[in-house]
Design a protein that fits this description.
The protein is of the alpha+beta class and about 230 residues long. It contains 5 helices and 9 strands.
């Protein structure tokens, strides 16, 4: 997100979530943080999510697996503790995966607008639909944190800038498509599950942001609804 400064139909479906979830369990870079020996309040749930033996007791292997997950998604403290933030990310991943190929099953995103980009803040998912037909997604996104919430409602893309740079935070915002003041779709080099969230923009992976850039245009509708966990 940032003040605007000028510089210068394939359905993805559940595969858009399965791939990130698989990557989430992969190896993380080496880290210096010590591993805790304490079992956390969500120990069994975290063990189950990570495919570890579910015994509720913290082992060295459990800690390393949890710590790897935390490092992958920028969760701090990254000491391998099965606490509420770590479990909250895992629980959200489970809920996202359960959506499958029917993200608008509740009918909240309008089907009478033609092509529209939908953002479900509660599930941190976005997709593009045309009427009731799913065009792309659903894919995980990263929206505004507490105090910087992504604003809800029906909006329109009013400006696009493929090489935008935020004039507030002085950071790149590639493939920016602005739909509400300084709030835009754009790519970031972070995990989509990195807490606590953005400064209001709808963050995307580079792959997703490029696809949105190719599928949307100035004047297309955007509908944002729900409430991001923790806001």
């Amino acid at each position: 997100m940032g003040d605007i400064r000028r510089r210068g139909a394939v359905v993805l479906g559940i595969t858009g979530l399965v791939a990130p979830l698989t990557l989430a369990l992969g190896a993380a870079p080496a880290q210096a943080a010590s591993c805790t020996t304490a079992a956390g309040p969500y120990q069994k749930k975290v063990e189950k999510f990570l495919g570890r033996p579910v015994d509720g007791r913290q082992s060295s292997a459990d800690c390393k697996a949890i710590q790897s997950f935390q490092n992958k998604h920028g969760i701090t403290p990254n000491i391998g503790y099965a606490g509420p933030v770590t479990w909250g990310v895992m629980d959200l991943m489970n809920k996202q995966k359960a959506v499958g190929n029917n993200p608008n099953r509740d009918g909240r995103c309008p089907v009478n607008k033609g092509r529209i980009a939908c953002v479900n803040l509660t599930l941190q998912l976005s997709w593009i639909q045309d009427g009731s037909r799913l065009v792309y997604g659903p894919v995980p996104v990263r929206t505004g944190r507490d105090g910087y919430e992504t604003r809800t409602g029906l909006k329109k893309i009013y400006w696009r800038d493929i090489d935008h740079v935020s004039s507030i935070y002085d950071v790149p915002m590639p493939y920016s498509q602005f739909f509400d003041g300084g709030q835009a779709f754009h790519s970031v080099g972070l995990s989509m599950w990195n807490p606590p969230g953005s400064h209001g923009c709808v963050n995307m992976t580079t792959t997703t942001a490029k696809k949105y850039w190719s599928l949307l245009k100035k004047g297309d509708d955007v509908f944002v609804y729900g409430r991001k966990p923790g806001t």
